[in-house]
Amino acid sequence: MDELILMSVRLMGIFLSRKKRRKRWLTRRWWTRPLNLRRKSHGDYEHLFQELKEDASMFFHYTRMDLATFYNLLNLVGPHLKKNSIRAYFPPEFRLAITLRFLATGDQISSLALAYRIGISSAYEVIKETCAVLANVLAPVYLCLPTEEEWQCISSEFLRKWNLPGCIGAVDGKHVQIQAPINSGSEYFNYKKTHSLILMAICDANYKFLLVDIGVSGSNSDNTIYSSYLGRAIKEDRLNIPRGVIQLPGSHITTPYYFVGDAAFQLSRNMMRPYPGRNLTDRKIVFNYRLSRARRTIENAFGILAARWRIYRKPISLNPDAVNNIILATVCLHNFLITENNKELQQHLYCPPTLIDQELENGDLIQGEWRNEPNILQDISNIGPHRATTAAYEQRDILADYLLTPNGEVPWQIEYIRRGRHAF
């Protein structure tokens, strides 16, 4: 009998608790805030965004693209942004506009929610869903693994623009700062004393990203090249790289195709890095200089990315999965805009010549405007001792010798490396 009474009391307590919660849910202060009810008369999308369509320069400043490119992008992603719901929903153009504004400025989502007159939670969902759609729709077209023929075309472009035969891409990695996730401990804590995710990338001679690897936690910085999928794929030769060799122009010397990286990467037959040390011979200094000219493309690619998408100017305050989609969305948008602007043969608004490094005929470098832009993308650290194979050392020496021959040199290289020191 006592047990029945206790059980009845417990059931009554549960019933009253649920009834109380239900009553609190039914008597919420409002379903939609009064200021959001005036969206059509005061919201940024309904007024400011529509007015910007009449001002080309301000529209580009707002979205990082011109109006025609915006509608081209909307045609690609719009069908995936439609919502089938009996309740009022935000149209695809609205979703794309607020997301591009978030990526372009890095503003707090709460500020954008106020400007667009929607709820903060709704703004979070819209931005996260739209970034996922941008990544899923654009990546298969603008960020896919090159074929062997495409790798060969990339190599030809590196030779034409940067005078480095056999190079098929420049590799680098950056820390993308994030706000520390709840209960994450030191999982994302890196050597710079910040929390981050690592973005590993390969780019071509025209600053387009070829492959990216996103999501390795910042605490893995000392072993990034091995812990990332991209690093393992390079090391294990799983990227459709042509199996044969390329003949160096004007000679009978052959070399495998290879990527270029800085001192953080391990030397191998498909990864060339500079000669280490300070007191180097002219031969080694020339090789390092010529390698750095090609490797500068990945520095500029990251610079353009951070200058155009200012979400990278401060730690991203979202969970790591959402940050992964945001990073991939910006990379895909970067490739989309470079490709479409070149295809239309328009003035390159997204990447004008002044934004990137420029090289004069005598080798002097005019630094791009992106280097004056504040961003918090941090370099990955050195991965420690490098134990390369004898074949890798020999290949680097062969390239170094070739770059001193009449067919392999650039006219200004010796004068350039001797500037600022006495040479007799």
What does this structure look like?
This protein is an alpha+beta fold. The chain folds into 2 domains: about 35-140, no CATH class; about 150-415, no CATH class. About 50% of the residues lie in helices and about 10% in strands. The protein is built from 16 helices and 10 strands. The protein has helices at about 1-25, 35, 40, 45-50, 55-65, 65-80, 90-105, 110-115, 120-140, 150-160, 225, 230-235, 280-310, 320-345, 390-400, 415; strands at about 165-175, 195-205, 210-215, 245, 255, 260, 270, 360, 365, 380. Strands 1, 2, 3, 6, 7 and 10 form a 6-stranded mixed β-sheet that branches. Strands 4-5 form a two-stranded antiparallel ribbon. A two-stranded antiparallel ribbon has the order 8-9. Helix 6 packs across helix 7 and helix 8 packs across helix 9. The chain starts with a helix and ends in a 7-residue tail after the last helix. The mean pLDDT is about 85. Keywords: Hydrolase, Metal-binding, Nuclease, Nucleus. GO terms for molecular function: hydrolase activity; metal ion binding; nuclease activity. Belongs to the HARBI1 family.
Any key phrases for this structure?
single chain, 424 residues, alpha+beta, 6-stranded mixed β-sheet, two-stranded antiparallel ribbon, 16 helices, DDE Tnp4 domain-containing protein, hydrolase
